[in-house]
Design brief:
With 160 residues, the chain is mainly β. The chain has a single domain (2-159), classed as Immunoglobulin-like (Sandwich). The protein is 12% helix and 42% strand. A 5-stranded antiparallel sheet has the order 2-1-3-10-5, with helices on one face. Strands 4-9-6 form a 3-stranded antiparallel sheet. Strand 7 and strand 8 form a beta hairpin. The protein starts with a helix and ends with a strand.
Length: 160
Amino acid sequence: MIGRISTTLLALFAISSLAEAQDPYLDVTTTVQKQEVTTTADGAQSVRLVPAETVVPGETVIYTITFRNISDESAENVVITNPLAAELTYVDGSATSDGADVQFSIDGGATFATRSDLVIDVEGGARAPEVKEFTHIRWVMQEELAAGAQNVVRFAAVLD
């Protein structure tokens, strides 16, 4: 079972990378890691990120998406979109960025909104979606990305 989960995670990594690399002016790299906690003989603990080669249900993985402008001109309106596989549940509040607005989709990437603006229509009204209903995360850069410059966005998800 662990081997299958690991293969699935690596496949998700590949899908994510392909989705990110569609802009010919950006070089995009996605890494998938998990936290490794080590304890010394005196009880001190240290945490480091390691490649997520094997992941079991309940473990958290951290996606780091690094993108670099490989053109000779500044890139405007840079948007990074990452799908969330059905086997992953987004960790609320984990999407980070430097200089971007974070948006989410609950409809397969057809529409996006900020977390607070997402609603699901239900009989008799509306409700806020649960994080397990998120299908995509999008970062909309607020500044141009200069020629040769790079930026990083990150999020965490739990393998169901």
